[in-house]
């Protein structure tokens, strides 16, 4: 029996959580021992992942639930809210780390972290990059945007450890480069803020009812052109709810066609779209006659040259 989406989400999240706890403790402890502010900041970043993991574990119980009377369009927006929470938390962590690093520049005696900090940062890079790649595969299996966002949280942790490792090596080779560790912490901040934006922006667009994807309309027109009975498709609207897309559009058929036949064509076309477009979960089709009054994509001409 194949795993359900919620089982895949929970397994991927729990594995990530265990890794986050171990790496956070390692980086904070080693950072304190070696005097690396950047490594301590990176460890705090890893601990912040635990909060997002908890949000996913709780939120997934809601957004994977089927549509009901209270939520006839499903519960996908719970996933959107989870993504916003992840993005806001990530941004808050980045701002805190950046503030501490900027405050230390010129006001705190520069330190040269020991080589142990390099090995801790390297371990984080390897483990978190592996977690990112594995979590992305799991996210694609079930088409989960939140799980994909959490995967990028893993990668942001891996990327944020990179300048820490470089700073330790450069400081070890050239001790005279003061405040390099604080500069590395600021680079970590920039990477975290970029990851937060990449998670937040799509979620904000979704809440403002932005178009789901730019290529949705072209896909529908392509499939419609393959059905001779469909004369035209227009007024295509799409919106995203979590990891799913809802569609509605007008479908034009021969005005002399029976209502029953037109309905059959629309139902078959709807089934085709649901099968071919993985993220689409519901389609509402408004049937119209292919007359001059209704045609938009292929309007009538007075001289009949474009009929």
From TrEMBL:
Ranges for domain Cation efflux protein cytoplasmic: 214-290
Keywords, ordered alphabetically: Ion transport, Iron, Iron transport, Membrane, Transmembrane, Transmembrane helix, Transport, Zinc, Zinc transport
Single biological process term from Gene Ontology: iron ion transport
SUPFAM superfamilies noted in UniProt: Cation efflux protein cytoplasmic domain-like, Cation efflux protein transmembrane domain-like
Entry's transmembrane regions: 84-105, 117-137, 158-177
The UniProt record lists the keyword Mitochondrion: no
CC per GO annotation: membrane
Annotated Cation efflux protein transmembrane domain residues: 14-207
GO molecular function, one term: monoatomic cation transmembrane transporter activity
Membrane topology: Multi-pass membrane protein
Cellular location(s): Membrane
Record flagged with keyword Transferase: no
Short name of any one Pfam family annotated for the protein: Cation_efflux
UniProt record similarity statement: Belongs to the cation diffusion facilitator (CDF) transporter (TC 2.A.4) family. FieF subfamily.
Protein name: Metal transporter
